[in-house]
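Quick question, first post here. What does this chain look like in 3D?
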Amino acid sequence: MLNQEQLPAIKKELEEFFRQAGLSPAIRLEIAESTLKADLEMEDPGVFIGHSGQALAAIQHLLRAILRRKTGEVFYLDLDINNYKKNQNDYIKEMARNAANEVALTRREKELAPMPAAERRIVHMELSQRADVVTESIGEGEERRIIIKAAF
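> Answer (accepted):
Ran it through. Tokens below.
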């Protein structure tokens, strides 16, 4: 399990990784249970975020492997650049609430667009406390999506 004493070495490793890419982002680290949250602020983050966050996901995967090897610890890395993920998650939650409100009003189910597992999880979690709707994932692979139904 990661601990606070490891944060300076991890921060140094992240700084070196991005220095090799010609950048020097501001890095803020936080440990919550088995997750290392790394928030970066940098100029022109587009190339590191990529289309729909694909580059960010790939960099996160690579950095997790590097940091696990360096620390010898198993943990989840949550990398965010210029609050991209936070803003994306806020958007998904708002979209889920709006769709659920529509379903609750019309009593007609609503099928959301296909989305990755992490985004589906956000929708399920956001709507799990509501008594007026239920969520269900359907489909396979990249076509997996959520249906929101009125609770009876």
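The mean pLDDT is 95.
The beta strands are 26-32, 35-41, 76-81, 110-111, 133-138, 145-150.
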